[in-house]
Amino acid sequence: xxxxxxxxxxxxxxxxxxxxxxxxxxxxxxxxxxxxxxxxxxxxxxxxxxxxxxxxxxxxxxxxxxxxxxxxxxxxxxxxxxxxxxxxxxxxxxxxxxxxxxxxxxxxxxxxxxxxxxxxxxxxxxxxxxxxxxxxxxxxxxxxxxxxxxxxxxxxxxxxxxxxxxxxxxxxxxxxxxxxxxxxxxxxxxxxxxxxxxxxxxxxxxxxxxxxxxxxxxxxxx
Length: 222
What we know:
The chain has 222 residues and is α/β, with parallel strands linked by helices. Helix content is 42%, strand content 14%.
């Protein structure tokens, strides 16, 4: 159990956030961002890589649909999105900017520059598809592109609380593939690499335990 706040890179986890990592709890922005920080730190882009992926943080992604002025949005979003070849975008149906909590479902949108496409992954039968189109439309305006959305096969959750866990499992699998493939070729078959291998997606309980163990290791190392 986490008894004090953990600060890791640009993320933080409070004891209350940590409790969300147990079964039947919904992962909040801090849980999502903590794991994304870990992925980016432990799977760095290799020197000389021709493909540059970027993990947009959950705490920033909801601004995409809630800031109408694209000029202001362009300034608010990290500069990395303008130089990246692949952008992983957590999608949430939260609409209230004034509330820290909110939303009921996480899904994933991945922009692939080479194909000018947004690939969409949703563990609840495309429950968030309306928001995915909003995100893709706004990102398209910010980047000055016209990208289409393609729905990808995704493992399906059996409850209302594991969407964030599937989000992290899928991002982890796809991000690792991109990092590994980007070291040897710029002729990457993106749509093949970005297909989810359902056989290697950890069951939600195991993924939750994996993240809890990671938190413990980091806490003990301080």
